[in-house]
Amino acid sequence: MNKDSKRMSSPDNTRSNRRHFGNVLLVAILAVFILLGVRFVYIAVGKHVQHVSLSKQAQALYTEQQTIHAKRGTIYDADGNPIAMDTNTYTVYAVLNKHQVSTTGKPLYVTDKDKVAKVLSKTLNMSSSEILKILNPSNKNTFQVEFGSAGKDLSVATKQAIQKANLNGIAFTTQSARLYPNGIFASHMIGYAQPTTLANGASSLIGKMGIEQQLNRQLSGENGVKQIKHDSLGYTLPNSQRNKRSVKNGDNVYTTLNPDLQNLLENQMQILYSKLQPKNMVAMMVDTKTGKILAATQRPTFNASTMQGLGDQWNDLLVSDPYEPGSTMKSMSLAASIDSGNFKGSDTYQSGRYKIGNAVVPDWNPAGWGTITYSKGFDLSSNVAMAHLEQQMGANTWKKYIQNFGFLKSTNSGLPNEAHGAMQFTQPIEQANTAFGQGITVTPMQLMQAYTAVANNGKMLKPYYINKIVDPNTGKVVYRGKRQVVGNPISAETAKKVRQHMTDYVYKSYGMGKDFKIAGYKVAAKTGTAQVVGDNGQYMDGMDSTLNSVMGMVPAKNPRYLMYVTVNQPKKVPDKLITQWENDVFSPVMTEALAMDKDTALPGKATSTKVPKLVGTNVDDAKQQVSDLSLTPVVIGDGSKVTAQSPSEGKKTLTNQRIFLRAGDNLTMADMKGWSMGDVLEFAKLTGLSVQTSGSGYVTSQSLPAGRTIQEGTGVTVKFK
């Protein structure tokens, strides 16, 4: 019985254990559900998991963030014409995948390779056979192909020419680029900007030289950010776009460069550079009353639109490449001698050779001119005279004036890589050498600044090239250039005496500057011929081993314009003297500047006139007004009322210049033959033409014939000579 009773209790125990396990399992499941419920409530209320915001994650999943690219600021000349501006370039590609069709079934791939090759060969620098080879790749699964460097950086005109052929499968990608409509126009001073890949992978236009580099931050502006919300299917939700950060376009920069003078200077410099084939050349003009740089260039230079020639000369020679100036330094030593009370022009000395210690200072004419006065010595550009003057005033006094004239330190022009210059000044012979421009190095910017003290009655002005900087977002002027006196190295009386000696240098029968006379004006000038140091550290011999220069100011008694021209190591000097060749740059540009100013223009010569308000007037009446002012009207469009004009109201322009009048929207191409670069740019500004230029001087040909219908964005190539 006992055994049976034990056997009977076993099933009871099993059922009891099962119930117990079931209860435990139920409690465990309930606990898990309770924990999950609490967790769910926590997440639902707090919307955070492991410090991550679920709401923000969900929002990010359906929110697209787009960058709004800032427009790079435009650089203008003194008349408000663009020198550097934003544009687009294009890369052409061909789709080969035959599955690419539009919603209407139209092929979006190349269907006629022979036609594509024929059309592209006319616009790209490639042959039809080269293009066909690319269109028939060995890999039959190739989706699309490009055409190498020939298919990149295409202008809008080239893109439009390709699009006119209506080629299936030909498409374009767009890249931001910088347009320099003038081509060669103070290229090293303006510089250039190129698309550059940044650390974050984005591409941006970055200044690489000149103003583009100097003011890169201001020109670049600040990109904006835009948010767009989508639903779960990817469709944009209505009214969901908002700016997270507003875009700030780059500041616009207005330079002091006068377009008429700059274009003329470029033209004359190119002619001289072609004839003499020097190592390099520099030219610069400054308004002596304000310090404004009106024109500046160098050779070799480059075309900022095509970058052609950039590899020939990277440095901005105005500020970054010091050199021994030679005899143009003699005006400084003469000024120091006069100002320190040591100069006695009627005293005499023995010219030809002057021994200082164990060294000898020679005149450029080793035989000399006998015993002459110091005044005549300056007119003959005597080294010996200057060495005597340095010895008379003493090295310490002369060094003080060198420093007061701003040499051996930066002018703080703002242009990148500005040099300070250097000087050898330990031994007596070295101290004497600096008085005639050897053993001391300067930059053109330093020398021009020093000469403003002579031109401006002792007040030394800082040359500047930025007239103003304007924030396009607010219209406010954020910077304005101004006349700045940076020193007073000599007295007004000394400056007048130096100018008189520089005038004698041009007009005395024996003066060395007689080639720089300008009819109707008195010119004060000083030339220089400096020996160039070779690789061995020794001075080289021969005309092709000299740096030749002229510094001149006009009118001599009360100078308005100061101009400097250098020709370094010319390979050829055909037909006439080097000074006569230099005058082919100096005289035309100086004469043009004088004629443009009513205070310096000669009676009966070309003078400037103020452009009247013509917008809103009848076309015939506007033409009559323009003609009455001895200006030439050019009407654009077939409307009856003037809707826009260039130059704008109040601008000054030379008589006999063109005034452009827009009337209506039916625009046709003008006959530009004989136009200046400035005329072409004025026309383009009113019509929206996209201009590509080559050469300098005046228009000889244009890619679009006169009378052709044009619209904004139409491309035209204009050649100058």
Fold and architecture overview:
With 721 residues, the chain is an alpha+beta fold. 31% of the residues lie in helices and 23% in strands. Strands 4, 5, 6, 7, 12, 20 and 21 form a 7-stranded mixed sheet that branches. Strands 14-13-25-24-23 form a 5-stranded antiparallel sheet, sandwiched between helices. Strand 24 and strand 25 (561-568) form a beta hairpin. Helix 3 (113-123) packs across helix 4 and helix 9 (259-276) packs antiparallel against helix 17. The longest helix is centred in the N-terminal third of the chain and has 45 residues, at 2-46. The radius of gyration is 37 Å and the shape is globular. It starts with a helix and ends with a strand. The relative contact order is 0.09. The mean pLDDT is 89. It is a single-pass membrane protein. The chain crosses the membrane at residues 21-45. Residues 605-665, 666-721 form the PASTA domain. InterPro entries: Beta-lactam/transpept, Beta-lactam/transpept-like, PASTA_dom, PBP_dimer, PBP_dimer_sf, PCN-bd_Tpept. Keywords: Membrane, Transmembrane, Transmembrane helix.
